[in-house]
Amino acid sequence: MDFVNAIILLLNYIFIPALTYGSQLALGAIFVTLIYGILRFANFATGDMMSFGTMMTILFTWYFQSLGVSLGVLPTALLAIPFGIIFMIFLHAFNR
């Protein structure tokens, strides 16, 4: 049973955070290379977009958790992601 607990601990504290952080870095790299490949201009403002969208998603996740809103066994962040996207769109639509 200690072996199973060690595997679960390894997955929860090492593997999953590393996978999510690596995915975030890969997404940012895809943004920069796609924009550079099309426009021939390295637009690093995509990092600001990612940061703002992530911040809004985290804030809405905390807000939903404080209200007790959830999706059962699914993470509450799945409810908050559309709100983060909407706020990100508003930021860039009205920030010209």
Summarize the structure.
This protein is an all-alpha fold and 96 residues long.
Description:
The mean pLDDT is 87. By secondary structure, the protein is an all-alpha fold. The protein has helices at 2-39, 46-67, 77-93. It folds into 2 domains: 1-42; 45-96, no CATH class. The protein starts with a helix and ends with a helix. It has 3 helices and no strands. The chain is flat and about 55 Å long.
Instruction: Count the domains.
Output: 2
What is the number of helical segments per DSSP (H or I, 4+ residues)? 3
Largest sheet: none
Order of helices and strands: HHH
* Coarse structural class: mainly alpha
What share of residues are in beta strands?
under 5%
Mean pLDDT reading: 87
List the uncertain runs: none
Number of strands: 0
* Helical percentage: over 70%
Q: What distance separates the N and C termini?
A: 58 Å
Rounded to an integer in angstroms, the radius of gyration calculated over CA atoms is 17 Å
Approximate shape: flat
Furnish the topology, listing elements before pairings.
Blueprint: H1 2-39, H2 46-67, H3 77-93
Overview features:
flat, 96 residues, mainly alpha
